[in-house]
Amino acid sequence: MPTYGKNDFKESNVNYLNKDFSSLKQSLMDYAKSYFPNTYRDFNETSPGMMLLEMNAYVGDVLSFYVDQQYREMLLPLAEERRNVINLAKMFGYKVKPIVPAYVDLTFTQNLTANSTDSSKIDYSTGAIIDRGLQVKGTTNGVVFETLEVLDFKISQSADTNTVNTFNSTTGLASDYSCTRVVRAVSGKQKTSTFSIGAPEKFKKITLSDTNVIDIISCVDSNGNKWYEVDFLAQDKVPIETHYTNDSNRESAYSNALDNSTSNIEVPFSLQYIKTSKRFTRETNVDNTTSLIFGNGVLKNGQLVDSDFIDLEQVGVVVPGQANDLNETINPLLGDEYSTLGETPNNTTLTITYRVGGGIDANLPSSDLTIIQDGTAMNGSGGTINDLTVTNNVPARGGKDEETVDEIREKSKSFFSTQNRCVTKEDYEARVLNIPARFGNIAKVYVTRSGDDTTPNVNQQLFSTALTSLDTSFQKFIDDLDRIKNEMFTIPNQAGGYVVTTQLLEDFSRSIENNSDQIGDVIRNINGYSDLTTFDLSSINIYILAYDNLKQLVGNPIEQDISIPVTLQNNIKNYLSNFRMLTDSVNIINGFIVNFGVFFDVVAEKYADKNQVKIKCIEKIKEYFQIEKMQFNQPIYKSKLEYEIMGVEGVRSLNHLTITQQDDYYFGYNSDGEFLGTADQTLHPNPTYLYSFNTELDNGDGTYGGFESTGTTGYSYYYDFQAALVDGIIRPPELSTPAVFELKNPNQNIQGRVR
Q: Model pTM greater than 0.70?
């Protein structure tokens, strides 16, 4: 038997790229030939040695496959197993939907009586208010839809229609009106399940027996406490919606919290965030069931921060030896770093109400949803569901079966890329426009960062007026600031002097902290022009305008009672608090509106009816200036409008076109070069502005310059259209006063002549 010494063995040379059966078999054969040439030489396919080589190659091939497969399943773009794709989607924060419900706009109709003193108006006091969750069934397959919004017939909205239903046979006046409201609805039925909970358990998990759960409507324990769904357990701030009929601080949907006056902008819901420990997250399992996962703590006095169940009442306790950093507090939805992951229910019974349904079968045709099944009237309602009729003027769409693996993969990647954060100016604009309509009807948005524009200063008189509405503590802050600004402080005990002490500086700092929201409100409400330096406490300036019930722009930086309601402003601030960056302070400002009128002078073809030509020209101008097309800082292309009018059937030539706020200041020349002279026409009413800036206005405090009401009530600001016209383009106001051009009351403010 041959013997082998140390020098007979060479260092092994392994090729790690060989992973399939054939390459592994060949590698084993080469290895045997190289390192055991005298021991084994029989490489016949039928030999026992080859059987052992092939068995090892087989095991290597299988192991290689599983290693590759497991690595692929760790990567979202390559994963194939549904369970792994769902788990990877959770890492991105995406919630998988077991089934997709169908959505539809339902049109409800209720007959409301005419006003007793003026039959041309509707008595909205008889209108019904039906809570969300009103069930409507289809006639085709019995699929049930539930409303997602409050059905409110007590407020008038721009999207609704009101027509006379019946007339009084004696007087010929309207007796009642047929009023419509359009609300959003989703397919699905409500179900309820109860769960008995015993001893506390960290991260308690409750699984609903039903599949295809599309929404958790409520979760209430036996003590009447409500538990709130959150995106993640560390989130301790949740949004709360309050309808105006259930809010004692609001008189109506038009309530303006600042001066208790009414506005014609409907804001049915107010939005705010509350801090709560009773919260849970929801996740979809592989079998399409839904689980609720609760927190890890319980309320119990006397516990330490590092105990098994963290004491939620000790939030904010500083633990010796631990650094006070900004780890979790960067997220505005989180509390301090010692907050828990929420309570865990114990020794109680949970009642969970949820919605199931959806799928392809829920995509019903139009006019199919006509059967009202169930609903609840809210406080202040003048009617019931028996007074209503319903239909869907458009088909229900969007319903489909559970999300496929590919859909989950792509949606989770998109979800991660957005990060649910507002970073750029465009992010803020998109988020504000995306605020649900029940919190306010936002029409136009313009966002700047501090330094991008020259923020308008404030008039001294406006500044003084705005301060009258502030409370005593904030007024003291202003007084302290004024004294410090004017160096009205001296050494202690000096007669008539103002003593600056350590306590004063501490109180001043605390006053700034406690009144930060009010400071922002002052800046928003007193926005204008002044010789004073503006307090620039915000990095994000959001200029907004809203629609009233006639779909006309509303917004006024000067007079609060005709500006954006404070309820709407607060809703925007609270809504953005969920998305803004920690370092961004949001400042909501009323945008400027510039109203105008149009004069035109055209020559008609000989065959054309002059009246019809005039009507067509007016309709073309209305279409060109549709308010949906007008945005902040958007110029008016006068030359393009002239081209549009030239294209009107029956128009031979255009003598002139004037866009102005008062007089038709220039006729221009005709096609023969003949000067037509200046205009003798004026708009009605005259003019289309209310406020004009007077540099010589005496404010009574030694300062001059400010706005004064010199025009027509119901309009906005003066603008020199003639000076702004350059090369056929009317330039918008400067960025310091972002404005939207609006053709208000076009039936009055479009005047034309057909020759």
A: no
